[in-house]
Amino acid sequence: MYAIIATGGKQYKVAEGDIIKVEKLDASEGQEVSFDVVAVSTDKDMLVGEAAAKSSVKAKVVGEGKTKKVVVYKFKPKTGYHKKQGHRQPYTEVKIESITA
C-alpha cells in the first residue's frame, strides 16, 4: 500500500516506514503531523478524488536541517560587476507511521 501526499507545493509517493525530507513544517521533533492525500493505492484498487480525501497519512517528525548550499553567481562583463550569494533551503525529515484508506 502506498499513498501520494501533497505538502510544500510538491507531491511525494510514500509507504509506511519511509523517511522523507519535505519543505520545512511548523512542528517540533517527535510531534505527529498529517498530510493532504491526493491518491491511495490499496491491494484491490486506486482511490483518487473524494475517496482519497477521506483517507489519512500520519507521520512523525524525525528532525530538521538544511540542504547543501546552492551558489548563485551574478556577473556582467566589462562593468566589473560580480555578486556571489549562497542559499541553503531548510527541510523537515518525517517518518511515515500509518496510511489508512
Continuous helix count: 1
- Please trace the helix and strand order, writing H or E for each element: EEEEEHEEEE
- The proportion of residues in beta strands is over 45%
Q: Radius of gyration over alpha carbons?
A: 19 Å
Shape, per Cα inertia axes = elongated
Describe the structure in your own words:
Strand 7 and strand 8 form a beta hairpin. The model has no long low-confidence stretch (mean pLDDT 94). The protein has one helix and nine strands, in the order E-E-E-E-E-H-E-E-E-E. Strands 1, 2, 3, 4, 5, 6 and 9 form a seven-stranded antiparallel sheet that branches. A two-stranded antiparallel ribbon has the order 7-8. It is 4% helix and 65% strand. It has a domain of 70 residues. By secondary structure, the chain is mainly beta. The relative contact order is 0.30. The termini are close together.
Q: Can you lay out the helices and strands and say which pair or pack?
A:
Blueprint: E1 2-7, E2 10-15, E3 19-23, E4 32-41, E5 46-48, H1 50-53, E6 56-66, E7 70-76, E8 81-87, E9 90-100
Antiparallel strand pairs: 1-2, 1-4, 3-9, 4-5, 4-6, 6-9, 7-8
Q: Short description, anyone?
A:
This protein is mainly beta and 101 residues long. The protein has one helix and nine strands.
Keywords:
1 helix; mainly beta; seven-stranded antiparallel β-sheet; 101 residues
